[in-house]
Amino acid sequence: MRQYKKVETTELDKVFCNRCGKEILREADFLHVEKRWGYFSGKDNEVHEFDLCEECYDAWISDFSIPVEKK
Questions:
Q1: DSSP structural state of residue 58
Q2: Positive or negative CA dihedral for 31, 61, 47, 53?
Q3: How many CB atoms lie within 10 A of CB 17?
Q4: Calculated CA dihedral for residues 59, 63, 65, 70, nearest 10 degrees
Q5: Most exposed among 9, 41, 49, 54, judged by the fewest C-beta atoms under 10 Å?
């Protein structure tokens, strides 16, 4: 989840992990996902967007049946 503050232009103020709710510090790396669902899905043309801190990303991918490919 992202919070924005109004200034003359809109700028990113804070980033929160959608899974654990903790604020992600500016110097930390994190995963941002934005997905526009296509037709014939149950979410026709909806855009889903979320952020995960590294800890929650690691917990999420540990449940994958096929491991994430690392290069």
A1: H
A2: negative
A3: 21
A4: 0
A5: 9
